[in-house]
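User: Fold this; tokens only.

Assistant: Input:
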Amino acid sequence: MVRSLFQSATYFGLIACVTSDAALADDPRAANQAVVRNENATPQSVPSGEGWTSLFSGKDLAGWTQRNGWAVYRVDGDSILGATAADSPNSFLCSDKEYADFELRFEVNVDPALNSGVQIRSKSLPEKDKGRVHGPQVEIMKGPGQSGYIYGEATGRNWISPNQPSHEHMKNNEWNQFHVRVVGTRLQTWINGKLIEDITDPLSLLSGFVGLQVHGIGKNQGPFQVKWRKIEIRDLSKK
């Protein structure tokens, strides 16, 4: 995220109909009025089913490409470890493959002093801010806090989630289970089996890569680290 750690901004809104990055550049605050929280919609519980594919071999980082900053990513046992680097901007380890409709599940253990996240349906384009990673991000931070809500990384939208009430479902210094479902314009997230977010967002891109973020830090901060393991995806585009 491009903000001070744990900064939040609240936007409310009802409905809109255009899906484009151009609309965001014109009026980011108005754009976020398109987002609707799907109250009392289904499914409320974590989806189940077969057809999962691992995104991490447990041996190397094949299938992933690092973009933007110079945080260090490496294999650490059965996990991918991301370690901060002084003065680095936000760093992202991005899947080489892009996805449209899918479910993503993973476990994460983040240093409570570090802000992190996982990009979904994101892009890195030479013509946009020299390849800066941009798109929806599932927030990861210490609890109690705003983990699981959706932030618009480098989109100019700030928070995509209409509001982000603090919760205690993220456990500090422990492995936490995240489940993400994106189908069409609907985005849902669960942490440790608890539904955190369920929104309709007609303005974000409908396909893109998955990205593991290590947030940038200053000269006199850190080092901090975040680990991800059991990273699996289920492609729903053909279902």
